[in-house]
Write a structure and sequence with these properties.
With 105 residues, this protein is mostly helical. It has helices spanning 2-21, 31-37, 40-54, 67-82, 85-103, and strands spanning 55-56, 59-60. The protein has a two-stranded antiparallel sheet with strand order 1-2. The termini are far apart.
Length: 105
């Protein structure tokens, strides 16, 4: 039953993507729908990173001792300043590991 569910969900996902990507199909989105869909990726990503950075043990954790929050802030600053994904990733990971080591969080 689980395998059938996975296969059906994979088929549904593939078909919904295929309808919008294949060039010979006559389906075109209006500019309003395209604009509306442009907000979906930032919304989903925000829903993923906000709880990771700000919530510890089901409580809001905004403090200098939160390694996730501090490394996230450093990552945003590095990304803005240097515009290099590898440098940003390396610095953020180093800050995170240093924070975990120093604060034993």
């Amino acid at each position: 039953m689980t395998l059938l569910t996975i296969l059906l969900m994979a088929l549904i996902t593939f078909l919904t993507r295929y309808l919008f990507i294949h060039p010979s199909l006559p389906l075109k989105l209006s500019p309003k729908v395209t604009l509306f869909l442009s907000f979906s990726a930032p919304a989903v990503l925000t829903a993923i990173w906000v709880p990771i950075l700000l919530i510890r043990d089901e409580q809001l954790a905004i403090s200098i001792h939160n390694p996730y929050l501090i490394s996230g802030i450093v990552g945003v600053a590095c990304a803005y300043r240097f515009k290099s994904i590898y440098f940003t990733l390396a610095i953020s990971c180093c800050v995170f590991l240093l924070m975990k080591f120093v604060f034993n969080a």
